[in-house]
Specification:
This protein is an alpha/beta fold and 326 residues long. It has helices at 38-44, 87-90, 132-135, 138-154, 170-181, 194-202, 226-235, 256-261, 274-286, 303-312; strands spanning 2-8, 11-16, 26-35, 55-56, 60-66, 74-77, 80-81, 101-102, 115-119, 123-125, 162-166, 186-190, 207-209, 216-221, 236-244, 265-268, 295-299, 319-323. Helix 8 links the parallel strand 15 (236-244) and strand 16. It is globular, with a radius of gyration of 19 Å. One of its GO terms (biological process) is butanediol biosynthetic process.
Length: 326
């Protein structure tokens, strides 16, 4: 099969590789659409030791099952494969499973390929009226759904339901969409990139600004750099909540003294539970997350250029979706 292979820092190759082979209890999925995630970019730049080269990246995927009793079923893929038996799994917190595996991290190759093998429990059926390019957004949308749910759960009921989202990429936009689906109408996205900020406002109908000095009770950091953590620390209202999704860099930025004295809740959020993934997929199918027409599509063979464009900061759309069979 053909795949886009990460071969080293800022080095990708579109080439022939050994075809994906299902293990017991798994199904072969013909990948129709797969999104480029921020974590794929981190690996591409050599910033993610969890993703060593050579490796097939990509974990935001949807496609069609080939062979077996599910043959022909259109599915979106939950890329997180938990052990199923540990206390975290038994309490339906699969994202905290210490033995979890994720496609695009060894030992599981990713979905920037024509095929990927996945357990049946990780496959969520997609209705015929939903394009697979939109179904592939279930993964990044679920990340933000999980974060929005945790942030709202931690917010004191006396505080205003208003949010500031740092970062206007797919995760930041998805956080805004999730918050709105959960009843938070006042959401502002801070996005310094002029092209992307204009796209968010004009194509997505979002309130997007280059910077903000307006305090907010809830702040979602969808970037995860020291600078964005410093902004979150400074702008969150006393008694408010910071939900931290981004993995841009490991340290710096938090004003721990202010967070302590002002009793600010900081929540690290990671992926989603299996139920939250299914809930997010259903929200897509029901149209509760909007038209999801803000993606840019390209053939997988053009993925090398897609990564270069993202690296150069010239992509306005929050998400590039690659098609292996284009």
């Amino acid at each position: 099969m053909k795949a886009l292979v990460y071969e080293g820092v800022e080095a990708l190759a579109y080439r022939e590789v050994r075809s994906a082979t299902p293990r017991e209890g798994e199904h072969l999925v013909r990948v129709d659409a797969v999104g480029i995630c921020g974590s794929d970019m981190h690996a591409y730049l050599g910033h993610d030791a969890r993703r060593p080269a050579p490796l097939i990246l990509g974990h935001e995927a949807a496609g069609v099952v080939e062979g077996g009793p599910m043959a022909g079923t259109r599915v979106t893929i939950n890329p997180l494969v938990p052990c199923g038996t540990c206390p975290a799994c038994q309490s339906q917190r699969e994202n905290l499973c210490p033995g979890r595996q994720i496609i695009s991290m060894p030992p599981r190759e990713g979905a920037f390929a024509q095929y990927v093998a996945m357990p049946e429990a990780n496959l969520v059926a997609v209705p015929d009226h939903v394009p697979l390019s939109k179904a592939a957004l279930a993964e990044p949308l679920a990340v933000s759904w999980h974060a929005a749910k945790l942030a709202l759960g931690a917010l004191h009921p006396a505080m205003e339901r208003r949010a500031l989202v740092l970062g206007g990429g797919a995760i930041g936009l998805a956080a805004s969409l999730a918050l709105k689906a959960m009843g938070v109408e006042d959401v502002t996205i801070v996005e310094p990139n002029d092209h992307r900020r204009a796209f968010l406002a004009d194509a997505c109908g979002e309130t997007a600004v280059a910077q903000s000095d307006v305090p907010a009770p809830m702040i979602i950091d969808a970037v995860g750099y020291a600078a964005t953590r410093a902004t979150a620390s400074a702008l969150v209202l006393p008694g408010g909540v910071i939900a931290h999704i981004g993995l841009g860099e490991d340290t710096g930025g938090l004003d721990v003294r202010r967070m302590t004295l002002q009793e600010i809740t900081f929540i690290g959020t990671y992926t989603y539970t299996a139920q939250e993934f299914r809930d997010t997929a259903q929200a897509i199918y029901d149209g509760r997350l909007g038209p999801l027409d803000w993606i840019r599509t390209m053939p997988l063979e053009d993925g090398i250029q897609a990564f270069k464009d993202l690296r150069a900061g010239v992509v306005a759309s929050p998400k590039i979706v690659l098609h292996p069979w284009a």
